[in-house]
Amino acid sequence: MTNAINFLAEKLGTALSQCEAKVTAAESCTGGGVAHAITAVAGSSKWFDCGFVTYANSAKHRLLGVPLELLATDGAVSEAVVRSMVAGAAAAANADFAVAISGIAGPGGGTKDKPVGTVWFAWQSPSGVKAKKYLLSGDRAEVREQAIKISLQELLHQVTGCNTV
User: Fold this and answer.
1) How many domains does the chain have?
2) Peptide bond preceding 126: is omega within 30 degrees of 0, i.e. cis?
3) Which domain holds residue 21?
């Protein structure tokens, strides 16, 4: 992990502690990188109970309740799927804040409509759900690292904005 990711995870932990809130992550292309960053912070068990690495569509369905029809029609790398993933993760973990990530880290797997580097994110907070698509550049490791950083930055932004949960 980079120093920037470590810094973000520490700041997120401080903000979650101040809000007395919990966070979870539903990860696909990042393969548990967000959970790894969060749990690298001492004391994270106070604000992180569990996370979900749902790389296969069957896991997204089984663990997070993503409808199979949605996966078939929209594909795993889509706004609808990450919105469903984040809702399922937040409910399963009883978390106040959540992030879901699904993307194509490469080097293969890209298409004309969804090239390598396409990553969808969804963040859930007490004030609602926000989803956003990014087109990241670099090799597989760089795409994954950027996705972890983006996930933590937005979580920190949302948690810092909380007054009470």
Assistant:
1) 1
2) no
3) 3-160
Residue 139 to residue 103: CA distance in whole angstroms:
13
Flag residues of the chain having pLDDT under 70: 163-165
164 SS3 class:
coil
**SS3 (DSSP) at 52:** strand
pLDDT, tens digit, 9 for 90 and up, residues 84-122: 999 999 999 999 999 999 999 999 999 999 999 999 999
DSSP 58-114: HHHHHHH---HHHHHHH-SSSHHHHHHHHHHHHHHHT-SEEEEEEE--SSS---SSS
Residue at 93 is within a domain: yes
Residue 10 structure tokens: 């520490």
pLDDT for the residue numbered 163: 58
Q: 165 lies in a domain?
A: no
138 occurs within a structural domain: yes
22 domain-assigned: yes
- Residue for token digits 């706004």? 79
Q: Look at residue 164 in the predicted model and tell me its pLDDT.
A: 45
How far apart are the C-alpha atoms of 59 and 61, rounded to whole Å? 5
pTM over 0.90: yes
